[in-house]
Design brief:
By secondary structure, the protein is of the alpha/beta class. It folds into two domains: about 100 residues, Roll (Urease, subunit C, domain 1), CATH 2.30.40; about 290 residues, Metal-dependent hydrolases (TIM Barrel), CATH 3.20.20. It contains 16 helices and 17 strands. It has a five-stranded mixed β-sheet. Helix 13 crosses helix 15. It is globular, with a radius of gyration of 21 Å.
Length: about 425
């Protein structure tokens, strides 16, 4: 993979959600090492080739996708409009267990290609097709490498009897396989992901938490996505899901709680005290009828929060930002509940912080992950951040850069075009 060092000058850029004119940054070995007004940083880049973007382009930080199940693009269209239990049983569990490693590779190339075309530069992929070994996960890692997207592989641990055998593992086997992936693919940012309180046993969650501490990696887990989890947990243990995670030693600064919809104020305060983070998935929560996460309450407690595309019905962080803002306005019946600046932050800098990865900002020191948008549709009187969040479209994305390397340039690559053909053949076979 080519290592990029160059000087990037932007007539217009969004930095911290604010418009900056004649902004520039210095990229060395794929990282931003200096940034600011052009005149202030140009001397630090006299030895570098330059890249410039004119005033009809808006340069923004790369979008951070905090939670994805890329293979679920195979479900969209035919599996719509079902209650969650039927969607899971008749669609998810029917299709995903039958995927071969080759199927995973081409499905993920197609999904990651869509993400890059939507300006997503980092994706946290929650991957649970691990029951037969690491071959499927390795295919997903290859797909990220070949498309150029920055990957966080949240490797699921599952041992519930009701889960397909293709997802289940013993605790010791899951730990050993996760260690192997970490050591073999350091660029994949592999971390541990006990699926949930209902799909991973208490012993497995305790072991995953200990693994996370020993390896200093993050722990992703679905939490309180639907009412049934809270009801079952309280009936069995007398605890809420968040209280039970804390009791199991799995609530702390490395915890990434996915969804966190059905949580009380006490639960949110526990999350905040522990240093845990939350990933909100507003489009999928609507699609599956899950509910609305109270992001405003989390923000008031300074809980780092990001956004995810989850089921990948349409993997667009612009859509997720807009939905995040609008759902909070509905939840609070207040048009000022959550504004464009905060929604943009959730999809960029705060989202990266929630995953404990670099990116999401056009400042030093950060990876040189950025997106070039067509600014011609932005009204001259509109703050660009508001325009992106409330009126933006994925079609505005003209180019996507990861580590300073251009990985999308306005049309699908030959690899992604082939993946679409392979994906169609896979879908036809599985249907």
């Amino acid at each position: 993979m080519r290592i990029v060092s160059e000087f990037v000058r932007c007539a217009r850029a969004l930095v911290g959600g604010e418009l900056r004119e004649d902004y520039a940054f210095v990229v060395r070995n794929g990282d931003i090492v200096a940034a600011g007004d052009f005149r202030d940083v140009r001397d630090a880049a006299r030895d570098l080739d330059a890249r410039a973007f004119p005033a009809d382009r808006l340069v923004v930080p790369g979008f951070v996708n905090g939670h994805s199940h890329a293979y679920q693009i195979l479900l969209r269209g035919w599996a719509d409009d079902r209650p969650f239990a039927k969607w899971r049983a008749d669609a998810l569990y029917r299709v995903v267990p039958r995927l071969t490693p080759d199927d995973v590779y081409w499905t993920f190339v197609a999904a990651f290609g869509e993400m890059l075309a939507a300006g997503i530069t980092t994706v946290a992929e929650f991957f649970y097709l691990n029951g037969s070994g690491n071959a499927h996960a390795e295919a997903a890692i290859r797909a990220a490498r070949d498309t150029g997207i920055r990957l966080v592989l949240a490797r699921a641990w599952m041992d519930a009897d009701y889960a397909p055998k293709e997802f289940r593992e013993r605790i010791d086997v899951a730990a050993e396989r996760t260690r192997e992936l970490m050591e073999r693919y350091p660029e994949a940012n592999v971390c541990v992901a006990p699926h949930s309180l209902h799909a991973a046993s208490h012993d497995m969650i305790r072991a995953a938490a200990e693994f996370s501490r020993e390896r200093d990696c993050m722990l992703h887990i679905h939490v309180a996505e639907a009412p049934y989890e809270g009801d079952a947990t309280r009936e069995a243990t007398g605890r809420s899901p968040v209280q039970l995670l804390e009791e199991l030693g799995a609530l702390g600064g490395r915890t990434v709680a996915i969804h966190a919809i059905y949580v009380s104020q006490d639960d949110r305060e526990r999350i905040a005290r522990s240093g845990a983070r939350v990933i909100h998935n507003p489009m999928t929560n609507q699609y599956l009828g899950d509910g609305i996460c109270d992001v405003v309450a989390l923000q008031s407690l300074r809980v780092p929060t990001g956004l995810g595309t989850d089921a990948d019905v349409r993997p667009s962080l612009i859509d997720e930002m807009r939905a995040a803002a609008l759902l909070q306005k509905i939840l609070y019946l207040d048009g000022a509940a959550l504004g464009a600046r905060c929604a943009f932050d959730l999809g960029t800098a705060q989202g990266a912080g929630a995953l404990r990865v670099g990116g999401g900002e056009l400042v030093a020191p950060q990876p040189a992950d950025y997106v070039v948008l067509d600014a011609s549709n932005i009204d001259p009187w509109s703050p660009p951040c508001n325009a992106v969040v409330y009126r933006g479209e994925d079609a505005w994305v003209q180019a996507t850069f990861v580590g300073g390397r251009r990985v999308y340039v306005g049309e699908p690559s030959p690899l992604v075009r082939r993946a679409r053909d392979e994906l169609a053949a896979t879908a036809k076979r599985l249907a």
